[in-house]
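ok so for the tutorial part 2 we go from a plain amino acid sequence to predicted structure tokens. step 1 is just haveing the sequence, like this:
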Amino acid sequence: MTSDRRTLLADAALDVLAEEGMRGLTHRAVDRKAAMPPGTTSAYFRTRAALLTGLVTRLVHLDQAELQTTAEAFPAPRTAEELVNGMVLLTRQRLTGEGRRRSLARHACAVESVRDQELRAILVPHDNAGREAVRRFLAAHDVSDVETRTHTLLTCIDGLVFDRLVNGGEVPREALEGLVAAALR
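step 2 — the prediction. this is what the tokens look like for a chain of 185 residues:
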């Protein structure tokens, strides 16, 4: 039951952070969002740092699950078009509904992690199915320095998602095609 309650509170904290920003993330706000009695969040996450750590841990877990699902839908891209199709799906997921909520929280936590090494350690890019699919694709196309190009490509996609979070709209397919073409050069 404790694990379920911690997950519920971490999900509520993600909602609060996405809706109200870092300043709005308080134990009381999470209690309200989770429809729990006052003091519940602080009983499970005693300090703000503990609350942020729980939130970021949950965020990474949800992101990893999303990336696994996307990789299963596009298991082994063989062509640039197949890789772009997977990226289009991922960027749409990150800009709508549940994915948008997590993207807003992720970016707020990334900024916070500049001053908090514990958060930084949790948020650093993890190996996952999506990253591995890009890595294998680039290696199969004899790209030099696969690790650096994988990192650069995925960082550029994150930047495009951030831009669309701030300015609205979808990531244009042409932009993703251009990034993949650049990675292959």
